[in-house]
């Protein structure tokens, strides 16, 4: 060696050690399902994580073993993130909203040996226990008084915290998260220590999460969704205060945000929508947040406008379980200060720009060998690569990437010259009509702008001449009487003429996936015998 | 493999690729020594770096070879940072202010094969050429018209840029920087690709450099000083605009800052002082910067106050060549919004907090086995470890760290419970009196608050009873007639009584090192026969 800088393995334990050392007294507040609240600190989280590591050791759990959590957001879940990683284990965050068959599949596929769960999910545990033969230990985070289940606090209290984190390779896994899987079985994504640390570090930057030491974050995005977007790691690196709520009732969130001085929050669009509705119904002002991260699906324009008018910076983000999940984040751009409010909204409505580490490209939907220009106009299949992007699914026989390392996201989007990503659809939902592509998402977004439309889903239906033509399924708002021609008329000045649906079908409901997205697969299944009028 | 995220070596080329891809049109402005200006972009920097890599290849330079630069700040120097690293080479940034013996030593020690230099340093090149036998190629960044030296632009113009960056291990070196060495020969610090990327990424965060896409940075800190604090890498990651000046004339800097919309700058305290004096003398307002990073030595309080009153966030930083260099940076703290202006100044006058990756501790000055508490009171020898901290100097026979990986910084400081570092002295300058420690720096800082004192240096002189007692060497301001008792009287309510110097000696000048710091070594040498009155 000619000379060298220090050896330093990139392990998740570095993150909690840093937080406990540099922001040891900074608070972590938890509002539990039963309405009680507890407070701890970064030093407290680390202390309990050390005890949990000992408890797992004592239970015979080995490095590499999977420990499942079936839980909402709270400090004990956070302790588990660091405690499991600290003993070399892999925390498998299970989405409690999955269907039973999926719950059975993933716990068995993961071979989880321990399950840490919220009392609220005791019914799931009781129903599934016999179908989860690999699970040897069940530990309840918040056991009801008098219950005979093993309680998390008691379980770790048997240990003294005198423990050294397990060292290992930085490419070792530390977390396992399954995709909700709109087709086929859920697939497991194994996050590594290294990928997790790099993802969080890049996410810290000013143009992404923008955490400063005075930040107070209430993440509404569940800890079982793609590592809660990496926030519990990034927040620890920056030493911020966290406020967790185990319930997503807007009344509870609103009260917590206002009382605890919350500056930042993060969630899917429906969370913000529910918050708006709650504040409006109760004649309350929205919390004065500094920043709101919105991801999971595209934020509607009125949501962005309303938050921005309230003085909140909107960080519109795109990613997926396979991307840890941050791919792009929208924050103020180069020319931000010179933009009108309308232009700022327009910019924010796109999905932001890749943070350092992430590389994007778009590919022609018809010719996968053709890389598309970043011209702000041409849309294509979105591909991604980088250190926190999946290479191979858990236990898969082959890589999920192509020969050059690109992972196909299944999304369709446009790349702009300044790096901005504008998502337009999913590859399997985009509608091919006469050799051209129609974005189902843009049709839906235009339709839900109508005050009488509660929800809309556009699906391509077979057509002998055009290949496919769009049909729009619409759920009317309660009491509304809107007709199909009303919808078409409304859309006329919002989309190209040849994009106008061939039919509008009113339905009582639209099916959703476990993560709350429209399930076009189920919709297509429901309407598999549908025939377009005039299409024979 | 159970599953995996993607392979992605942390190489410096990732940084320039990202900047060229995501912020390709963002400008890089250079103001040259002859007064001319040129403009390029991140895409242009990358394009030229590819050509430089080819030119180095063509000249027979191999991966691992050292390429020296003797240059101020400008775009061609920036091209060299990325071009040399891109072909696997190591850029050795030589400080042109070093003495000839040091210049001879380091170029020979580094075995530099190419020297890229500014025309302003042609006299150094002419004088040193015969003493630099390893240098095979001399290339001038800005050759005067009609000169017959090889010009950088011509040299790289012979190539087409059709080049693939050399891949390699992320622990390969990419840059070499020598300490100015107040004792013994200068020592080389080899920055690695990995350490450089991690350092820049952590430096990007809101509580450190806080770059956003709209940032426009004029770094006054030279590119030959500790990688210009990593700014050229962090700036590329964030896609900011850079404005470089090859001269540090405050008139030029002021004009550039105002004309180019500069939002951020970085430099040592004397740079800011010169800027204040220039603006005052010419009745100009200070530039309205968003942020000023000050490092290299401690910023005086009046400087912090004046910048903050001008609406500028002061990022008071601490580090050294051996630490890449960022150890700590001061930005707004947890309770910032609740502090009075005075308290904000007080907080900012300390050296900030370690960014993620850096770990600090203090050790008893008398008992090196004793780790001191982080109580905000106890001062001791400052030690550091982390991924961008030195392990072993270039060509050294042994590590520069102790068995636990700690590097002793030679600084003396206090750690506060919230992680804040407060530097008090250098280990070799702190004065031991009666078993207690007196900070020479605090004495000096107190003394220079007197309006008649231009500069002051405190040195411990041998004393038979107390071991050492402080003597204060003072340079009077021009025309001032201050006496030794005036100085002592002035200090009486500023330092503890037993800290008061036993003698004040007026001198015409105080010696400085090549980096502009007070050279106590030279001062001690000059006064080696000094005897304290009454000390026999």
Structure description:
The structure is a homodimer of 536-residue chains. By secondary structure, chain A is of the alpha/beta class. The first copy, chain A, contains 15 helices and 26 strands. In chain A, helix 1 (12-22) packs across helix 2, helix 7 (193-203) packs across helix 8 and helix 9 crosses helix 10 (269-281). The longest helix of chain A has 17 residues, at 42-58. Chain A is globular and about 75 Å long. Chains A and B meet through strand 1, helix 1, strand 9, helix 7 and strand 16 of A and strand 1, helix 1, strand 9, helix 7 and strand 16 of B.
Keywords:
536 residues, 15 helices, six-stranded mixed β-sheet, homodimer, alpha/beta
């Amino acid at each position: 060696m000619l000379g060298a800088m220090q050896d330093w393995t990139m392990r998740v334990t570095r993150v909690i050690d840093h937080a406990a050392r540099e922001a040891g007294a900074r608070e972590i507040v938890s509002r539990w399902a039963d309405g009680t609240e507890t407070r701890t600190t970064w030093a407290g989280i680390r202390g309990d994580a050390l005890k949990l590591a000992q408890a797992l050791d004592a239970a015979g759990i080995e490095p590499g073993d999977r420990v499942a959590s079936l839980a909402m957001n709270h400090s004990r879940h956070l302790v588990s993130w660091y405690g499991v990683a600290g003993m070399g284990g892999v925390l498998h965050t299970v989405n409690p909203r999955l269907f039973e068959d999926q719950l059975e599949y993933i716990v068995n596929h993961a071979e989880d040996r321990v399950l840490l769960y919220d009392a609220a999910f005791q019914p799931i545990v009781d129903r599934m226990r016999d179908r989860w033969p690999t699970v040897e230990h069940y530990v309840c985070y918040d056991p009801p008084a008098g219950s005979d289940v093993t309680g998390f606090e008691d379980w770790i209290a048997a240990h003294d915290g005198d423990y050294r984190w397990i060292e290992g390779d930085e490419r070792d896994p530390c977390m396992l998260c399954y995709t909700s899987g709109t087709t086929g079985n859920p697939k497991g994504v194994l996050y590594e220590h290294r990928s997790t640390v790099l993802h969080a570090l890049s996410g810290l930057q000013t143009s992404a999460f923008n955490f400063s030491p005075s930040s107070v974050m209430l993440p509404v995005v569940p800890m079982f969704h793609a590592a809660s977007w990496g926030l519990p790691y990034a927040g620890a690196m920056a030493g911020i205060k966290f406020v967790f709520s185990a319930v997503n009732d807007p009344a509870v969130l609103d009260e917590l945000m206002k009382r605890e001085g919350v500056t930042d929050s993060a969630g899917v669009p429906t969370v913000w929508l529910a918050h708006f509705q709650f504040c409006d119904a109760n004649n309350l002002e929205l919390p004065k947040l500094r920043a709101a991260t919105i991801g999971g699906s595209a934020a509607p324009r009125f949501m962005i406008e309303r938050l921005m008018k309230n003085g909140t910076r909107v960080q519109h983000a795109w990613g997926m379980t396979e991307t840890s999940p941050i791919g792009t984040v929208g924050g103020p751009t180069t020319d931000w200060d010179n933009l009108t409010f309308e232009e700022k909204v327009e910019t924010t409505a796109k999905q932001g720009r890749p943070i350092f580490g992430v590389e994007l490209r778009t590919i022609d939907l018809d010719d996968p060998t053709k890389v598309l220009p970043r011209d702000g106009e041409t849309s294509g299949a979105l591909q991604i690569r980088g250190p926190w992007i999946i290479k191979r699914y858990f236990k898969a026989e082959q890589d999920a990437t192509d020969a050059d390392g690109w992972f196909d996201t299944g999304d369709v989007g446009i790349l702009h010259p300044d790096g901005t990503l504008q998502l337009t659809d999913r590859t399997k939902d985009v509608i091919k009509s006469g050799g051209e592509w129609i974005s189902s998402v843009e049709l839906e977004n235009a339709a839900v702008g109508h005050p009488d439309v509660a929800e809309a889903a556009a699906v391509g239906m077979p057509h002998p001449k055009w290949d496919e033509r769009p049909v729009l399924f619409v759920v009317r708002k309660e009491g509304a009487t809107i007709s199909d021609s009303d919808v078409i008329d409304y859309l006329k000045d919002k989309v190209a003429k040849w994009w106008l649906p061939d039919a509008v079908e009113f339905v009582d409901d639209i099916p959703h996936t476990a993560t709350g997205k429209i399930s076009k697969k189920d919709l297509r299944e429901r309407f598999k015998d549908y025939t377009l009028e005039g299409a024979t």
